[in-house]
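Fill in residues.
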């Protein structure tokens, strides 16, 4: 097995300084890095080429001297002049301070890792100087795994330490509390509202662990996006990883549900062929009952939970039962459809806005209203229209829209098997098109003509008329 040539450590810099020798862009980058810490930062250079003026540090023009190394914890050398460079290294070594020489691994006493900074938590990724680009790529992956609040959480744990020690005996019980604190979605959610709210939530958790029972369930209404795993938000992914139970709709593809914690219970409440579909009130009751069992529940909804998701009914039930909840937005299917078809649903001088509406169940008054909006230059984005498209188009024509208005349809938006087709309101009204299987979004309005569409949809007789 190959061994590390380095030993990762964390160097204490409070009350000390970091010396940077050099005045170019590399030196500036190291200065920025050093300023993330509490160290005093001092830069010495014969000439300052880069613009250091915005940074809060000490600058000195000249050659590096022994006095510059006083109380120095680390030295970075970033300059081209070999003689000056060797002089700086020699001075540092004489003072017993480790040196990093930028881009010269052979001359380095230490390397600078790629750093994930969630003070007081930090993650350092090192490739022993061999592949800094790879180290940065690893850093990007770790960044996306860690909650932005992890540092605040660590600080909170630090503040509570005395209190925890007085309330919970050392050993497994105390460890369980800290594990719960780090994994607590409720505390994490409270962190978004600021330190005092987080402290309250953490104290509540502490009291529970100290023996006073209380309710800890949390139901998260999470937008799953249009169906591709990588159109989930990072927050949604994190919550899925922490879930005890995942309750999902039929429109959420299995791949997305699979992204949840391996041991999480998965409950499908979607309609599917040959199976009794769960009614909305049954779903509400299910969420309340899971929340009452003190579970972390992720209610996964396709697209965005607040758009045609019946979210308010679930929220009402949770509120009535006093169960904590949160809402995590997702990419709604109409926006995925706009991206798939490169359609600017708002467009200066063409479309002053966009309306998301449901075609299914729309009454005459609503259709009248949309026709008026469309005529005033608003793009219509219609959900749930697949089975009623011809009738919807006919009614929009009856309310005065022109047969020439372009209509775009996107089936399976945001997924690899997406289909996009362009037609006109007149053609659409003639009779239903035979579209691929899957959910569909319809865009109606002049901005649709600016999109990129795979197929022109026209009826045979209409084509003949054109020919
Ligand atoms: N909350 C969801 C909408 C649920 S209503 C969202 O924000 O997207 C169900 C309707 O959404 C479907 O009838 C269809 O019109 C639309 N829909 C959902 N997923 C879709 C997809 N991947 N492609 C196209 N339309 C989709």
């Amino acid at each position: 097995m190959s061994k590390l040539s380095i030993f990762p450590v964390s160097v204490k810099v409070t009350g000390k300084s970091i010396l940077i020798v050099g005045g170019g862009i590399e030196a500036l980058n190291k200065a920025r890095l050093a300023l993330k810490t509490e160290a005093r930062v001092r830069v010495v250079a014969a000439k300052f080429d880069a613009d250091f003026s915005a940074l809060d540090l000490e600058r000195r023009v000249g050659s590096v001297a022994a006095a510059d190394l006083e109380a120095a914890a680390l030295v970075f050398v970033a300059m081209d002049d070999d003689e000056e460079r060797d002089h700086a290294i020699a001075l540092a070594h004489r003072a017993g301070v480790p040196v990093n020489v930028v881009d010269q691994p052979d001359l380095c006493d230490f390397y600078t890792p790629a750093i994930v900074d969630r003070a007081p938590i930090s993650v350092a990724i090192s490739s022993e100087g061999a592949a800094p680009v790879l180290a940065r790529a690893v850093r990007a992956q770790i960044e996306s795994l860690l909650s932005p609040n992890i540092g605040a959480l660590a600080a909170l744990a630090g503040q509570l330490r005395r209190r925890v020690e007085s309330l919970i005996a050392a050993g497994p019980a105390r460890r369980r509390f800290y594990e719960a604190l780090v994994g607590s979605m409720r505390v994490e959610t409270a962190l978004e509202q600021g330190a005092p709210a987080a402290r309250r939530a953490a104290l509540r958790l502490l009291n529970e662990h100290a023996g006073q029972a209380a309710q800890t369930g949390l139901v998260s209404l999470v937008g799953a996006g249009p169906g591709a795993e990588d159109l989930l938000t990072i927050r949604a992914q994190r919550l899925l990883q922490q879930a005890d139970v995942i309750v999902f709709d039929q429109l959420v593809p299995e791949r997305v549900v699979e992204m949840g914690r391996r041991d999480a219970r998965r409950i499908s409440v979607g309609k599917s062929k040959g199976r009794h579909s769960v009614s909305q009130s049954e779903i509400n009751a299910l969420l309340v009952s899971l929340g009452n069992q003190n579970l972390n529940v992720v209610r996964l909804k396709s697209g965005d939970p607040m758009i045609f998701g019946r979210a308010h009914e679930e929220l009402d039930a949770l509120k009535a039962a006093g169960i904590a909840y949160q809402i995590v937005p997702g990419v709604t299917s109409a926006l995925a459809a706009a991206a798939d078809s490169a359609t600017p649903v708002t467009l200066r001088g063409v479309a002053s806005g966009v309306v998301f509406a449901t075609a299914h169940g729309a009454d005459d008054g609503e259709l009248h209203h949309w026709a008026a909006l469309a005529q005033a230059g608003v793009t219509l984005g219609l959900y749930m229209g697949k089975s009623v498209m011809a009738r919807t188009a006919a009614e929009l024509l009856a309310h005065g829209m022109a047969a020439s208005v372009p209509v775009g349809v996107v089936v399976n938006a945001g997924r690899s098997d997406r289909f996009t087709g362009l037609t006109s309101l007149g053609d659409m009204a003639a009779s239903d098109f035979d579209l691929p299987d899957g959910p569909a979004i319809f865009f109606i309005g002049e901005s649709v003509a600016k999109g990129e569409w795979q197929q022109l949809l026209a009826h045979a007789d209409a084509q003949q008329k054109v020919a």
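The radius of gyration is 30 Å.
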